[in-house]
Amino acid sequence: MRRLSFCARILPYVNHRKRKRCLVMISRRSFLFASPALLVASPAAAFFKRAAKDPNGAYELEEHFKPAMVKVPASWRVGSIRVLSDRFQLFHIRKRGVAWRVGVSLGEQGLDFRGRATIHRKAEWPRWTPTPGMLKRRPDLYAQYKGGLDGGDPRNPMGAAALYMAVNGRPTYYRIHGTNIPWSIGLAYETGCIKLRNDHMQMLYPHVKVGTRMLVT
């Protein structure tokens, strides 16, 4: 599998105005020695600061984003999924009053999903094709991928697995899926899917059945 440069791996996930700042960072090494002022001034400072901590992808999550079994309201439906957007946390309710919790990244304001949905399909290492909305919004970035990318391709943003969301029985372009950008957890960036670190997505995937209900608030 071809190993992409650090900058090449993160460019697809950075807003086009912020993307120009990244173009000066040709490699991991040049990023690590970039001017601190660049990072502070950028609207994406948190994203880049996290990336700089470990450009090889082993970013250490904060404790409240690490997988854990936690207590939740007893009213939360067993087997369902809850996403608390303001906390960047996903909960899969395993039994009454107990859930598996993990950190997620979400879409930027206006691109994120809120409301009720149902998981209508599952796939491991799914193929990815840019949506019509993505192609219209960012042709400079997504047009080159309009033919799609196979699962496992390092440029494929779907990661290790995906849970496909439907609303009122109709499939949407929203998914819960993995990401190969672990330092994005806890941040809102670009597209509106709900993204888990790949290893965490692999932990969640076998526990979620087609038909699972979810609520994003």
Can you characterise this structure?
The structure is a single chain. This protein folds into two domains: 6-53, no CATH class; 105-216, L,D-transpeptidase catalytic domain-like, CATH 2.40.440. It has a nine-stranded mixed β-sheet with strand order 1-4-3-2-9-5-6-7-8. The chain has helices at residues 6-10, 16-22, 28-32, 36-41, 45-53, 132-137, 139-142, 198-204; strands at residues 68-71, 81-84, 89-95, 98-103, 115-124, 161-167, 170-179, 194-197, 213-216. With 217 residues, it is α+β, with helices and mostly antiparallel strands. It is globular.
Terminal CA distance reads: 38 Å
Radius of gyration: 17 Å
Tell me the β content.
25-35%
The biggest beta sheet reads: 9 strands, mixed
The level-1 CATH class of the largest domain: Mainly Beta
What's the CATH architecture name of the largest domain? Beta Barrel
The gross shape turns out to be globular
Number of strands: 9
Mean pLDDT over all positions: 80
- Class of secondary structure makeup: alpha+beta
CATH names the topology of the largest domain as: L,D-transpeptidase catalytic domain-like
* Tally of individual domains: 2
Helical content class: 10-25%
Q: Uncertain regions: pLDDT < 50 for 5+ in a row?
A: 1-43
CATH evolutionary superfamily of the largest domain: L,D-transpeptidase catalytic domain-like
Give the topology string: H per helix, E per strand. HHHHHEEEEEHHEEEHE
EC number: 2.-.-.-
Protein name: Putative L,D-transpeptidase ErfK/SrfK
Keywords: Cell shape, Cell wall biogenesis/degradation, Glycosyltransferase, Hydrolase, Peptidoglycan synthesis, Transferase
Enzyme class: transferase
